[in-house]
Write a structure and sequence with these properties.
Layout (H helix, E strand, L loop, with lengths): L2 E5 L8 H14 L4 E5 L5 H8 L6 E4 L5 H16 L4 E5 L6 H8 L3 E7 L2 H4 L2 H14 L5 E7 L6 H10 L15 H9 L9 H17 L1 H12 L1
Parallel strand pairs: 1-4, 1-5, 2-3, 2-4, 5-6
Helix pairs in contact: 1-2, 3-4
Bound molecules: adenosine-5'-triphosphate and magnesium ion.
Length: 229
Amino acid sequence: MATVVSFVNTKGGVGKSFLSVHLAVWLFDKGQRVALIDADDQQTSARWLLGVADHAVEVIALKAVSEDQRSNELRHLINALSSKTDFVIVDTKGNAGLSTSAAVIKSDVACVPLQASAADLWPIENALSTIRLSQEARAGLPQTYLILNQTSDTDVVAREVRRQAETFGVPIAQTNVKRLHAYRNATGLRIVVTRLNDRIGRSAANRLDKLFDELIGPHIADTQEAIHE
Ligand SMILES: Nc1ncnc2c1ncn2[C@@H]1O[C@H](COP(=O)(O)OP(=O)(O)OP(=O)(O)O)[C@@H](O)[C@H]1O
Ligand SMILES: [Mg+2]
Protein backbone atom coordinates (compact mmCIF):
# COMPACT_ATOMS: atom_id res chain seq x y z
CA MET A 1 0.00 0.00 0.00
CA ALA A 2 1.20 3.47 -0.85
CA THR A 3 2.20 6.09 1.69
CA VAL A 4 -0.25 8.98 1.29
CA VAL A 5 1.22 12.44 1.89
CA SER A 6 -0.97 15.52 1.85
CA PHE A 7 -0.03 19.21 1.87
CA VAL A 8 -2.61 21.19 3.82
CA ASN A 9 -3.16 24.61 5.22
CA THR A 10 -6.41 26.54 5.14
CA LYS A 11 -4.29 29.62 4.39
CA GLY A 12 -3.43 30.22 0.73
CA GLY A 13 -0.05 30.95 -0.82
CA VAL A 14 2.05 29.16 1.81
CA GLY A 15 3.81 26.70 -0.54
CA LYS A 16 1.51 23.64 -0.70
CA SER A 17 1.71 23.32 -4.49
CA PHE A 18 5.40 24.21 -4.61
CA LEU A 19 6.26 21.46 -2.11
CA SER A 20 3.80 18.90 -3.58
CA VAL A 21 5.32 19.13 -7.06
CA HIS A 22 8.88 18.99 -5.74
CA LEU A 23 8.20 16.04 -3.47
CA ALA A 24 6.54 14.14 -6.33
CA VAL A 25 9.52 14.53 -8.67
CA TRP A 26 12.06 14.01 -5.85
CA LEU A 27 10.44 10.65 -5.04
CA PHE A 28 10.22 9.70 -8.72
CA ASP A 29 13.95 10.50 -9.11
CA LYS A 30 14.58 8.13 -6.19
CA GLY A 31 12.94 5.29 -8.12
CA GLN A 32 9.54 5.45 -6.44
CA ARG A 33 6.20 4.98 -8.20
CA VAL A 34 4.36 8.24 -7.55
CA ALA A 35 0.94 9.76 -8.22
CA LEU A 36 -0.03 13.36 -7.50
CA ILE A 37 -3.65 14.34 -7.00
CA ASP A 38 -4.40 18.02 -7.38
CA ALA A 39 -7.44 18.65 -5.18
CA ASP A 40 -7.40 22.41 -5.73
CA ASP A 41 -9.52 23.74 -8.59
CA GLN A 42 -6.76 26.28 -9.40
CA GLN A 43 -4.81 23.19 -10.60
CA THR A 44 -1.42 24.80 -9.94
CA SER A 45 0.43 21.58 -9.25
CA ALA A 46 -1.20 19.55 -12.06
CA ARG A 47 -0.39 22.22 -14.64
CA TRP A 48 3.14 22.69 -13.31
CA LEU A 49 3.94 19.00 -13.16
CA LEU A 50 2.50 18.29 -16.61
CA GLY A 51 5.00 20.88 -17.95
CA VAL A 52 8.02 19.25 -16.26
CA ALA A 53 9.99 16.90 -18.51
CA ASP A 54 11.21 13.37 -17.89
CA HIS A 55 9.03 11.92 -15.21
CA ALA A 56 6.36 9.29 -15.00
CA VAL A 57 4.46 10.74 -12.06
CA GLU A 58 0.76 10.08 -12.64
CA VAL A 59 -0.96 13.48 -12.41
CA ILE A 60 -4.67 13.69 -11.72
CA ALA A 61 -6.78 16.80 -11.12
CA LEU A 62 -10.16 16.36 -9.42
CA LYS A 63 -13.01 16.91 -11.86
CA ALA A 64 -16.13 17.05 -9.70
CA VAL A 65 -17.64 20.45 -8.95
CA SER A 66 -19.32 20.25 -5.54
CA GLU A 67 -17.24 19.70 -2.41
CA ASP A 68 -19.03 16.52 -1.38
CA GLN A 69 -18.49 15.03 -4.85
CA ARG A 70 -14.86 16.13 -4.82
CA SER A 71 -14.25 14.47 -1.47
CA ASN A 72 -15.77 11.22 -2.79
CA GLU A 73 -13.72 11.44 -5.97
CA LEU A 74 -10.58 12.00 -3.89
CA ARG A 75 -11.33 9.03 -1.63
CA HIS A 76 -11.86 6.70 -4.60
CA LEU A 77 -8.72 7.95 -6.36
CA ILE A 78 -6.53 7.48 -3.29
CA ASN A 79 -7.89 3.94 -2.84
CA ALA A 80 -7.29 3.05 -6.51
CA LEU A 81 -3.81 4.61 -6.70
CA SER A 82 -2.64 3.16 -3.38
CA SER A 83 -2.49 -0.36 -4.76
CA LYS A 84 -0.28 0.53 -7.72
CA THR A 85 2.09 3.22 -6.43
CA ASP A 86 4.55 3.72 -3.58
CA PHE A 87 3.45 7.29 -2.82
CA VAL A 88 0.25 9.26 -3.40
CA ILE A 89 0.71 13.00 -2.90
CA VAL A 90 -2.33 15.22 -2.44
CA ASP A 91 -2.12 18.97 -2.96
CA THR A 92 -5.14 20.58 -1.28
CA LYS A 93 -6.77 23.95 -1.69
CA GLY A 94 -6.10 26.94 0.53
CA ASN A 95 -9.34 26.95 2.50
CA ALA A 96 -11.29 24.55 4.66
CA GLY A 97 -13.63 22.10 2.95
CA LEU A 98 -14.72 18.49 2.75
CA SER A 99 -12.09 17.57 0.15
CA THR A 100 -9.29 18.85 2.41
CA SER A 101 -10.73 16.91 5.36
CA ALA A 102 -10.89 13.79 3.17
CA ALA A 103 -7.23 14.26 2.19
CA VAL A 104 -6.22 14.50 5.85
CA ILE A 105 -8.25 11.50 6.94
CA LYS A 106 -6.76 9.36 4.14
CA SER A 107 -3.16 10.47 4.77
CA ASP A 108 -0.26 8.81 6.54
CA VAL A 109 1.68 12.07 6.59
CA ALA A 110 0.27 15.61 6.59
CA CYS A 111 2.64 18.49 5.85
CA VAL A 112 1.50 21.96 6.90
CA PRO A 113 3.64 24.68 5.31
CA LEU A 114 3.39 28.16 6.76
CA GLN A 115 5.28 31.38 6.42
CA ALA A 116 7.30 32.58 9.36
CA SER A 117 4.95 35.31 10.54
CA ALA A 118 2.44 35.71 13.32
CA ALA A 119 -0.28 36.18 10.70
CA ASP A 120 0.40 32.63 9.51
CA LEU A 121 0.57 31.23 13.01
CA TRP A 122 -2.72 32.61 14.34
CA PRO A 123 -5.01 30.66 11.97
CA ILE A 124 -2.98 27.45 12.28
CA GLU A 125 -5.45 25.91 14.77
CA ASN A 126 -7.98 25.94 11.87
CA ALA A 127 -5.62 23.97 9.69
CA LEU A 128 -4.96 21.53 12.52
CA SER A 129 -8.59 20.90 13.51
CA THR A 130 -9.30 18.00 11.11
CA ILE A 131 -5.78 16.69 11.66
CA ARG A 132 -6.40 16.45 15.40
CA LEU A 133 -9.76 14.71 14.88
CA SER A 134 -8.13 12.21 12.56
CA GLN A 135 -5.20 11.62 14.91
CA GLU A 136 -7.60 10.82 17.77
CA ALA A 137 -9.61 8.41 15.63
CA ARG A 138 -6.66 6.78 13.81
CA ALA A 139 -4.08 6.17 16.53
CA GLY A 140 -2.02 9.27 15.79
CA LEU A 141 -2.33 9.37 11.98
CA PRO A 142 -1.57 11.36 9.97
CA GLN A 143 1.94 12.04 11.26
CA THR A 144 1.95 15.81 10.98
CA TYR A 145 4.73 18.34 10.51
CA LEU A 146 4.67 22.10 10.32
CA ILE A 147 7.13 23.40 7.72
CA LEU A 148 8.49 26.95 7.97
CA ASN A 149 8.62 28.20 4.38
CA GLN A 150 9.91 31.41 2.80
CA THR A 151 12.31 32.18 5.62
CA SER A 152 16.04 32.15 6.35
CA ASP A 153 18.26 30.59 8.99
CA THR A 154 18.98 33.99 10.54
CA ASP A 155 15.34 35.16 10.58
CA VAL A 156 14.58 36.11 14.21
CA VAL A 157 10.83 36.13 13.54
CA ALA A 158 11.15 32.53 12.29
CA ARG A 159 12.83 31.58 15.55
CA GLU A 160 10.02 33.18 17.53
CA VAL A 161 7.36 31.51 15.33
CA ARG A 162 9.15 28.18 15.85
CA ARG A 163 9.08 28.74 19.62
CA GLN A 164 5.37 29.60 19.58
CA ALA A 165 4.53 26.80 17.18
CA GLU A 166 5.96 24.29 19.67
CA THR A 167 3.00 25.09 21.92
CA PHE A 168 0.68 23.50 19.33
CA GLY A 169 2.16 20.10 20.14
CA VAL A 170 2.80 19.33 16.46
CA PRO A 171 6.39 18.67 15.35
CA ILE A 172 8.07 21.34 13.26
CA ALA A 173 10.47 20.23 10.54
CA GLN A 174 14.05 21.00 11.57
CA THR A 175 14.75 22.14 8.01
CA ASN A 176 13.43 25.59 7.17
CA VAL A 177 12.79 26.42 3.50
CA LYS A 178 14.48 29.65 2.46
CA ARG A 179 12.81 32.29 0.32
CA LEU A 180 14.74 31.96 -2.94
CA HIS A 181 14.29 33.33 -6.45
CA ALA A 182 15.13 29.86 -7.76
CA TYR A 183 12.02 28.50 -5.98
CA ARG A 184 9.77 31.36 -7.05
CA ASN A 185 10.83 31.10 -10.69
CA ALA A 186 10.53 27.32 -10.94
CA THR A 187 6.77 27.38 -11.62
CA GLY A 188 6.95 29.64 -14.67
CA LEU A 189 10.02 27.86 -16.02
CA ARG A 190 8.30 24.47 -15.69
CA ILE A 191 11.23 23.01 -13.83
CA VAL A 192 11.83 21.49 -10.43
CA VAL A 193 14.65 22.88 -8.35
CA THR A 194 15.73 19.48 -7.02
CA ARG A 195 17.11 18.71 -10.51
CA LEU A 196 19.24 21.86 -10.85
CA ASN A 197 22.96 21.23 -11.13
CA ASP A 198 24.67 24.62 -11.31
CA ARG A 199 26.19 26.01 -8.11
CA ILE A 200 23.27 28.25 -7.04
CA GLY A 201 20.70 25.70 -8.17
CA ARG A 202 22.45 22.93 -6.24
CA SER A 203 22.29 24.85 -2.99
CA ALA A 204 18.54 25.49 -3.55
CA ALA A 205 18.11 21.80 -4.34
CA ASN A 206 20.06 20.67 -1.27
CA ARG A 207 17.68 22.45 1.07
CA LEU A 208 14.66 20.60 -0.33
CA ASP A 209 16.61 17.31 -0.34
CA LYS A 210 17.27 17.84 3.34
CA LEU A 211 13.62 18.64 4.12
CA PHE A 212 12.25 15.64 2.20
CA ASP A 213 14.88 13.32 3.65
CA GLU A 214 13.88 14.45 7.12
CA LEU A 215 10.10 14.07 6.65
CA ILE A 216 9.61 11.42 3.97
CA GLY A 217 12.96 9.58 3.91
CA PRO A 218 11.87 7.06 6.60
CA HIS A 219 8.83 6.11 4.51
CA ILE A 220 11.02 5.27 1.50
CA ALA A 221 12.92 2.81 3.66
CA ASP A 222 9.56 1.29 4.73
CA THR A 223 8.57 0.86 1.10
CA GLN A 224 11.86 -0.78 0.15
CA GLU A 225 11.71 -3.14 3.11
CA ALA A 226 8.18 -4.11 2.09
CA ILE A 227 9.39 -4.92 -1.46
CA HIS A 228 12.18 -7.14 -0.13
CA GLU A 229 10.00 -9.03 2.34
N1 LIG B 1 10.46 29.13 -0.46
C1 LIG B 1 9.98 29.88 -1.44
N2 LIG B 1 10.76 30.87 -2.01
C2 LIG B 1 10.27 31.66 -3.01
N3 LIG B 1 9.04 31.53 -3.54
C3 LIG B 1 8.23 30.57 -3.01
C4 LIG B 1 8.65 29.70 -1.97
N4 LIG B 1 7.62 28.85 -1.67
C5 LIG B 1 6.62 29.17 -2.49
N5 LIG B 1 6.97 30.20 -3.30
C6 LIG B 1 6.13 30.87 -4.31
O1 LIG B 1 5.02 31.43 -3.60
C7 LIG B 1 3.83 31.32 -4.38
C8 LIG B 1 2.75 30.55 -3.60
O2 LIG B 1 3.19 29.19 -3.48
P1 LIG B 1 2.16 27.98 -3.75
O3 LIG B 1 1.41 28.22 -5.01
O4 LIG B 1 2.94 26.73 -3.65
O5 LIG B 1 1.21 28.19 -2.50
P2 LIG B 1 -0.13 27.37 -2.15
O6 LIG B 1 -0.10 27.15 -0.67
O7 LIG B 1 -0.23 26.16 -3.01
O8 LIG B 1 -1.24 28.45 -2.52
P3 LIG B 1 -2.84 28.16 -2.78
O9 LIG B 1 -3.43 28.00 -1.43
O10 LIG B 1 -3.28 29.40 -3.50
O11 LIG B 1 -2.94 26.92 -3.60
C9 LIG B 1 4.24 30.66 -5.69
O12 LIG B 1 4.50 31.65 -6.63
C10 LIG B 1 5.52 29.91 -5.31
O13 LIG B 1 6.37 29.71 -6.43
MG1 LIG C 1 -1.69 25.56 -4.36
